[in-house]
Amino acid sequence: MALTVGVLSILGTVAIAYFVYRCVKKNGLPAININTTGAVATPASSLYAVVPDLQIWDATVERFLKEIAGEKPIRFTPEQLSGFTNNYSARLGAGGFGTVYKGMLPNGLMVAVKRLHATSDHRTSQEQFMAEVGTIGRTHHINLVRLFGFCFDASATGMRTLVYEYMEHGALDAYLFDDRRCGIGFPELRAIAIGGLRYLHEECQQKIVHYDIKPGNVLLDGGLTPKAVSGMRGTPGYATPEMWMQAGTTEKCDVYSFGILLFEIIGQRWNFNEAVPESQQWFPKMAWIKYENGELMEILGEQDKETAERMCKAAFWRLESGISGASFNMPSTT
């Protein structure tokens, strides 16, 4: 009899414990305020407060950067970058997206440090920063400028900085549009054109749409190997009309911009420049009129005219939507 009572007592205790367990599992434990000296239970809702959007986005960036910590880019501190650049004393250039300074890492490697401009649209600027680190930082290709690291400081400075490999010969536009172009011939320009776009869509595991292919964003290393670097999206004169019509953006945006780049390599002049009377007419349109009239050779200069003509036809094909609409009949690219 005593044994039976003991067994029933044990079973009752187990049943009560199980019931308590189920209740706790269903309703959850009360939150504990860890900021107090004692373990005082408080409702979970009382721990949450309204957080400004700025802090939310800074936290989002921080979480993103932690997730890619296993990738190649290195996170630098503001103090390190100040030392690498000698307090940003050697300015290489500037654009709509940021200012670039020359620097040197402790191991002697030269770098280009791009300090991004602060904007009123905090969310957009943070998204662009994450896109740059996430895309370029994870993609490695001979024709893509390598991203060594970055700096993100969510304090009052709001610093967003990107550290790239240093490109000895600078941007292609200097060789096309000023006196330095005498130092590079048409065969080299042709090789630069060939290496300028295909990798973005065919040779990388992750398809990249650059959105801003232009001579200023094509940099040249010591061996004149072209490497693309990013900038602001959709520079007027290079952006496909689709970007302004909100018709959706694909790799065709870069195909169009590459066509404009080809024309500027062929003619070694801006595709449109209000400061120069001769450039009042859009160069691609003028080239098409010359082609239709059998006068294309007149604008091809002294370079290899056969090669230049093939490049010109390839550029026509890429600009079909931007020259005369549906009535534009494309010449063969072969």
Instruction: Estimate nothing, just give the exact number of structural domains.
Output: 2
Order of helices and strands: HEEHEHEEEHEEHHHEEHHHHH
Structural class: alpha+beta
Mean pLDDT: 70
Which term fits the overall shape?
elongated
Strand content: 5-15%
Largest sheet, in brief, is:
6 strands, mixed
Spans of 5+ residues with little confidence (pLDDT < 50)? 16-21, 23-53, 322-334
Descriptive account of the structure:
This protein is of the alpha+beta class. The chain has two domains: 53-165, Phosphorylase Kinase, domain 1, CATH 3.30.200; 173-327, Transferase(Phosphotransferase) domain 1 (Transferase(Phosphotransferase), domain 1), CATH 1.10.510.10. It is 39% helix and 13% strand. It contains twelve helices and ten strands. The protein has helices at residues 2-27, 53-67, 78-84, 122-136, 173-177, 186-194, 198-203, 241-244, 252-267, 283-292, 305-318, 320-323; strands at residues 31-32, 41-42, 74-75, 91-94, 98-104, 110-116, 147-152, 160-165, 218-220, 226-228. The N and C termini lie far apart (103 Å).
Topology:
Layout (H helix, E strand, L loop, with lengths): L1 H26 L3 E2 L8 E2 L10 H15 L6 E2 L2 H7 L6 E4 L3 E7 L5 E7 L5 H15 L10 E6 L7 E6 L7 H5 L8 H9 L3 H6 L14 E3 L5 E3 L12 H4 L7 H16 L15 H10 L12 H14 L1 H4 L11
Parallel strand pairs: 3-7
Antiparallel strand pairs: 1-2, 4-5, 5-6, 6-8, 7-8, 9-10
Quick description:
With 334 residues, this protein is an alpha+beta fold.
